[in-house]
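Following up on my earlier message about BV8. Here are the inputs again, as you asked, copied directly from the submission form:
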Amino acid sequence: MEAEPAPELKTARELLLRAHRVCVLTGAGMSAESGIPTFRDAQTGLWARFNPMQLASPEGFRANPSLVWDWYASRREAMRAVQPNAGHLALARFAHEHPGRLSIVTQNVDDLHQRAGSVDVIRLHGDIMQNSWLDPCPRDPACDTDRATPTRPPRCADCGNPVRPGVVWFGEMLPVAALSAAEQLAQSCDLMLVVGTSGAVYPAAGLAHLARRSGAQVLIVNPEPSEIDDQAHLLLRGTAARLLPLLFNPN
Ligand code: BV8
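Thanks, got it. Here's what our run produced:
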């Protein structure tokens, strides 16, 4: 016999039923049960002694390009080996069954929402599987990173420009179109569901503040307290893969 759902879950389901436009903001915790370590979990193995904040920055890359390149290569390999979890699938299924009612804005650079079937996912921090040049190529802006040398990191054979992962590093601007679309959704939704983020990184975390200021109900799913809990009307203490199916597919 299923245990009676926590009272908060019943309230959360009522918020969801009443919501016409749901904006879901996800962070690394969304992918944790797929086997991808979160940003702030102790880095395992080789990376335990490095601070991801240093590695995920232009300065970190310029200071030690091969180390940072290898860190991304190991994360890419790990992401290719895992599958979307029940939380990703619950979001994708609900959006499919209720067209136009749920949008996803993610801080994550993995492709698990997309592989779960979610479409039009707004990626605030880019795509780890993509590459770009570290510096704009002075001679040939259309120069293709696929032609780079087989080194770590790959480099332009003509000018030595290094290839970098297509993610937004600390200190770098977010893609303007993605951030603007995310802000639009935060301002127009009537329910913002925040899943698996420490709320430590801006401007992404500011979307919860914006949603609340704009009149949305804010619901946070996280097994631990976060830095934006004060923005929540309701906190569901638990994990994405366990709670999202209960929230979106209750019966
Ligand atoms: C910028 C890609 C401006 C790379 C990442 C105020 C306004 C604007 C900027 C700032 C500001 N204050 C400070 C800044 C600067 C900075 C910032 O926010 N610093 C913080 C540390 C204070 N922001 C920036 O630099 C941003 N750029 O603002 O540019 C600018 C202006 C002018 C000129 C130039 C620039 C860029 C930020 C993007 C950085 N890139 N990722 C990569 O992945 O390698 S951020 C990276 O960290 C992630 O993408 C993610 O966004 C963040 C990690 O956060 P979370 O996703 O929350 O993950 P975390 O591990 O922290 O937490 C996991 C959570 O999950 C926990 O709460 C845990 O309890 C929970 N959890 C665990 N298991 C589960 C679970 N939840 C559910 N289920 C589970 N099973």
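One observation from looking it over: The mean pLDDT is 93. Hope that helps, and feel free to reply on this thread.
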